[in-house]
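Predict structure. Chain length: 408.
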Amino acid sequence: MKTNSVSNPNNSQPIHVPMRNGVRGHRLGHLQRTDVQQQDTFERTQTVKKYNSYNSLGATNSKPVAPQATAQPSVTQTEVQSNTPDITANYSWVDPRIQEMKDLLDEIYGRRAQESLRTSDARQHAWQRYFDPTARHFVGHDLNDWERQRAFDMELSAISYFERGRTGTMVGGWLSDPILEGRGLGNNDTNIPRIEHPHSEREAATLRFRARNSVASQLNALLSSNGVFVPENLKLRFIIDPNYNLRVEGTDDKDLIKQIEELLNRNGNARELFLHITQSRQLDSKQFTEDSFRVWQLGNFIEEFAGLNLRRDLELVGGRFVTEDGTDVLTMMWDEGVNPHAIALILDELYWLKNMGGAGNIPELTLSIDFMNGHLFDVGQENGFGPGQTDWIDRLPGTDALGARDYA
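Prediction complete.
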């Protein structure tokens, strides 16, 4: 595996950090933007090196320039929504442990950041915590290189967050954070509760089944509260493109189609339904291809951190992905103070997409789900989460810690 070096700012031996393509684990929250002007050189070494390598393959070798002032975060398309969705694909409420995990990570990394800020060099103190075995506060003894780097990034984000006088939720997190497994803990991390993650296949499938019931219930409430009634035994198909535009098929009733499309295309409802389909997919799904799914995920990152649509707003020119006025999207994110770790993840995926000839060479990810008699049914896969599609769950290995349920 290729590695990049993250050096100690005091010129100690570098720590080699494995680089991975894509995102490791499941995200609990958003990576926070950080003020690049406040970041020390050792924090950016990895990203700058990879960025220069990426640009050397294109038409320019220009380097990203650190901003002279803290940039304001870009507003993404989803942030423009004035109302909250009527339907939500976030099923953390189904398993309160997920929120507990977020709260725990916020507490620990927040406490560590505050401790580092009480020293003369907060970032040096944070670096020692994960990479210097001689430091009294070292916690990396049972972590691998990737986990050390990830934890370091989390604390750096929290430090920058507090330096700007912010309070509340800080850095989000990852379900794969070793803290959630009781690893990477220090002497000050006492009485840390062990939050059991749904490890068994059966339990994980049950969570997704409950999420399906939740989404269907919200959809029915939305329709009925707006006076929309779907005839019994009429099967409708909701088809959603990657820009979250939804259309309805399955009936000649144009008025019914118009009513449903208007409701589902407002307030981000189509996006939530799209996300729910991705969370419900099985390995045999005929709706997904690896490349299309990967481009869709990359598009989410580009929208979140640059406020741009990957397919509509960016063009591959001379080996770089640029806007209409020729601005390199990576330079733009760097200038706007995006977390270097997020830039590194996006850079890896853009490099892959460049080798594929750009997003135009990969079919868009368009997803469908059926709706009939108040239930949602998966399309294009043998096992699903709608009525008559769930017998497979009881055959899965593992125990079910969530209690009895009715699989309709």
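Summary: The mean pLDDT is 75.
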